[in-house]
Amino acid sequence: EIENFTIYDIVLPLPGYDIKYPENMKQYYKEELEKYGLTLDMTRQKVKMYTLCGNYRKILGHVKNVSWKILHYNDPTDNLIRSDFEELRGDPEPADVNGEEYFYFCFNCIGRADFNTLIFSMET
C-alpha cells in the first residue's frame, strides 16, 4: 500500500487528548511530555483555554508560485519593498540601483500551518 503515499503525506502528532501516537514514537513523546509534567493521557479540561486537543502536522509541504528577485542598494535604510498601502495606491516598485550591496527576495505560497526555512549565503 506504500505506493499510494508520498513523503508529503507524512505527519507528526502534536500532543493532545484526541491524538493517536505511532507505536514507534510513543515512548519518545511520553518522555518529552514528562519533562513538562504532562502525560499522553491528557483529558479535556474544564477551562477550554487549557485543553490541548492536538493535531497532526505535515513534515513537508508543496511550495507554489515561487518567484524571486535581487535588488542592489547603497544605503541600508533604503526601502526595498512596497508597503501594503503603497501597493494599494499603485506606487511603483523600488528601482534596482547600481549599489554595492544586494538583497535577495523569495516569494511563494505555502499552506496555513507551514513556514519557510531559507538557507542563503552572503558574499562579502
UniProtKB/TrEMBL annotation:
One GO BP annotation of this record: pseudouridine synthesis
Highest taxon, organism lineage: Eukaryota
Keyword tRNA processing on entry: yes
GO molecular function: pseudouridine synthase activity; RNA binding
GO cellular component, one term: nucleus
Name recorded for this polypeptide: Pseudouridylate synthase
InterPro entries hit by this protein: PsdUridine_synth_cat_dom_sf (IPR020103), PsdUridine_synth_TruD (IPR001656), PsdUridine_synth_TruD_insert (IPR011760), TruD_catalytic (IPR042214)
Organism expressing this protein natively: Anoplophora glabripennis (Asian longhorn beetle)
Cited SUPFAM superfamilies: Pseudouridine synthase
Catalytic activity: a uridine in tRNA = a pseudouridine in tRNA
Keywords noted in UniProt: Isomerase, tRNA processing
Positions of the TRUD domain: 1-62
Annotated family: Belongs to the pseudouridine synthase TruD family.
